[in-house]
């Protein structure tokens, strides 16, 4: 089968981008960050004659605070994400229209989350700002293994769905109606963005199935969420995994398998021998993930039992 350049793929896919922009605009609902912030709970910090933040002021649990901060800092790195997709897509024509629209929609997420957290005094505002500065100064670079339009389209398809799940599960642990409404609203945006990129990947599979399969294998086997390597990312990630906000089971059963099913990856008959090799590699990776999930769940169950035993001893 032919190997297509990025320029050819961008040209071939532009009508699909235009169609999906129109579909997206037809179903996406405008919303306003200020409508999800309980402004009457706000008060001045010490610099303006009020009181500085103390942990006792936060209405959120440690898990909820960690999840909200992690999700917010992920959203904060929008300038890096914009640069990456602009470099790999295009700022011309329908591609440029989508890059601009996607960026504008994503920007609302950090605005709304930060306003909510500061007004409700849910997190330490000084540490939050220091972490934001550190995150944005470092930025986010696409992994060296990724390169080109196909790798990026596949990556954002998976990443947007993973982010949607993370926001929805964070809403659960916040256990607060306004945070619940806000995070569900953000999750809806992420889902619509995922559908856009998923449809684009599906169209690319019709043009260059072998190349897309290669990208799917590359992205899936090297996948990390944006924010990897930043301060507290690993510690916070472990806590989020422990409490089911985003773990390997969700990544496998709620992200990868549903997306691959929509793409019909294991049913396609239009791949070459090279494409079959990529598909076999992907199948082996999914089997490995399943084994890893089982081991992780068994380990987590043992940890829960140990914690229950400790609690029982303390209560005795």
From TrEMBL:
GO terms for biological process: fatty acid biosynthetic process. Its cofactor is Fe cation; Fe(2+). One of its GO terms (cellular component) is cytosol. InterPro entries: Fatty_acid_desaturase-2 (IPR005067), Ferritin-like_SF (IPR009078), RNR-like (IPR012348). Keywords: Coiled coil, Fatty acid biosynthesis, Fatty acid metabolism, Iron, Lipid biosynthesis, Lipid metabolism, Metal-binding, Oxidoreductase. SUPFAM superfamilies: Ferritin-like (SSF47240). Residues 279-306 form a coiled coil. Pfam families: FA_desaturase_2 (PF03405). Fe cation 1 binds at residues 75, 106, 109, 190. Fe cation 2 binds at residues 106, 160, 190, 193. Binds 2 iron ions per subunit. One of its GO terms (molecular function) is stearoyl-[ACP] desaturase activity. It comes from the Bacteria. The keyword Membrane does not apply. PANTHER family: ACYL- ACYL-CARRIER-PROTEIN DESATURASE-RELATED (PTHR31155), STEAROYL-[ACYL-CARRIER-PROTEIN] 9-DESATURASE 7, CHLOROPLASTIC (PTHR31155:SF9). Homodimer. Belongs to the fatty acid desaturase type 2 family. This is Acyl-ACP desaturase. It comes from Tsukamurella conjunctivitidis.
